[in-house]
Amino acid sequence: MKNISKYKIDKTILIPIILFAIVSVLTLYGANSILPSYMNDLMGKQIMWYIAGFIIAYLVMTIGNTHIYRIVWVLYGIGILSLIGLFFFGVNINDATCWYEIKGIGTIQPSEFMKIILIISVATLISKFNEDFPNPSLREEFYFLIKTIVIVLIPSILTFLQPDTGVVMIYILITLVMLFVSGIRYRWFAILFGILGGLVLLVLGIYFISQDLFINIFGTSFFLRVDRLLDWSNQSGYQLEQSLSAIGSAGLLGYGWNVNPIYFPEAQTDFIFAVFASHFGFIGSAFLLALIAFFDIRLIMLAVKTNKLINKYVIAGVTGMLIYQQIQNIGMTFGLLPITGITLPFISYGGSSLLSYMIAMGLIFNISNENMRYTN
Question: Helices 187-209 and 211-218 sit at what angle, rounded to 10 degrees?
Fold first, then answer.
């Protein structure tokens, strides 16, 4: 255990998180009029999740990253077992079995925590590989990549079967970003993207040639997921149309807090940015985007300053995850990207996602504290 009183908290990271919390709570309260009646207490729940999140971040800081890195494979095993358990004990919500229901608390989504476990796991793999093979051959890199793919593939398959395609995309993105900064030869990325591109073209080819054949091969569930992804290409879909109307008509200052003239579903999660933009207009949206950009830049600067390689990889994974989700979530509210059900980090409602981000922030604060250890 560490005595964190000896360490400073990086206020340039902490203050944006506090501002995110304020934005999230205000937006959730302001969305009450377009939420179902059973969701009217989301603001209070989000406050409680934030309190729990800060407590968990504090506990992570107390434990210390070094100890967490040592037990990462235990955590990985627990994460895999929690994903498998969903097939037996999970609850079905909107045709997906992604959650455990805990009475008195709500639902817990294991895949959200698996994202953080995967970041630490891949960071540990990369760090050990670089220590063991300072100048790796192609063969050594190939075996390392196979090992990494297996580690990522197991939770990806389990999560895809829930089904939750959005989180699987995050798993893959996290891995690609961390491998990119690991120093392996770039030719592997060309090969990987070539294989992925070929698979995507094959799937889409079958989809457009014969939808009946597609369903026979991949099943109805996957067909509906692909169909939903393709809705954005022609700007179709009720959610997207309502989101564009809400953002486009808000003007410079917005309709005002708690004023919701346009309804759209999932206002508390997938389309929370549209709610915020509707309330506070262009100026409010520009402020939130600037805050997000500042926060991301601070994380990138921390990675640059950090000397410990495993810490660099952890920051790369966390930053890649956050930036991808930010771009994907905000982009889909404008119709620039397909609607995938990916939430806006720190802003959208969700206990599991928020707690997972705060675990990541605990790791980040520990890394930052290593640079500030003797300045207090």
Answer: 120
